Structure formats: C-alpha cells, structure tokens
Model the fold of this input.
Amino acid sequence: MPLLTILGMPPKTSQEDLVNLTKRIQAAVEKVPILGIRADAVSVFYQPDLQKEGLGEELIARIDGLFIKPERTAEVIAELRAAIQDCMLTYACKSVPQCTYVETFVASMVKPEDCTVNRLRTEFCPKCQGRGGWGSDTPCDACGGTGRKSGK
Done:
C-alpha cells in the first residue's frame, strides 16, 4: 500500500503535530473511494534532513508504492494528490509560518505482484523465543519448534 514520505519538516515539530498530520493524511487517502485503501494501510514517514537551514520553507509529500490497477486513472491519482496536498496546505498555513511552497507528487507505482509483505507474529516460539514463520501447523523457521507462547 502507499508509502508517503514528508520532506522538509522543521526539526522541532512536535510529535503531537506529526501524529495529527499523519492521521489527517491517512483519512484523506481513505476518502478517495475508488482507491479502496483503508487509513491504517497508509504509511507516513517524516524524513529528517541533514541540512537544518531552510527547513519548513518547502514541504514535499512523496507518494511511493501505490499499486497499479486499471481503476487508478490519471484523474483518480490527481484526486489522491489533491487530497494529500490539501492536508499539507492546511498544516503549513496553521503550523509552519515560514512555508512558502507545498508539493505533492507520485514518485512510483508498482504492480501488486512485485510487492512482498510479511507480517511479524506478536507471539514468540516457545523453544527459541523468535518470531519466525511458525504456527500451530508449521515449525519455526529458526529452530523447528512448534506451538504458541504469548509475549517474551
């Protein structure tokens, strides 16, 4: 699912502001109905910058990893960009007074079959305490153990 990287965020931005902006962006993506993307499937990261001077003057939202699908036409992608851009503009006007430029763009789209997702278990192998690919019917990848044990 989509990965958004926000560039240019001032280094002293509060965690509360970042969490609130993330939630607004995730909700905005979910509100583009043809995409069929749930808010919790949208990853938002704030990339730190080595150069501190000028941060906050430009805010850029880069969208990567959006799956290529027939219904995701240029118009739908433009709607997605506009929804995210609106979140970024609202945030910049309210919280980043030095900001004079906001940009949102789709950097890459991928075929669903070119994406691999692995979810880590929240349970631990009772034999080695690892979270490998094990379960009640499959042995742990690391040690061959089976069974379930909550927590570590």
Observations:
- The chain has two domains: 3-114, 119-152.
- DSSP finds two helices and eight strands in the chain.
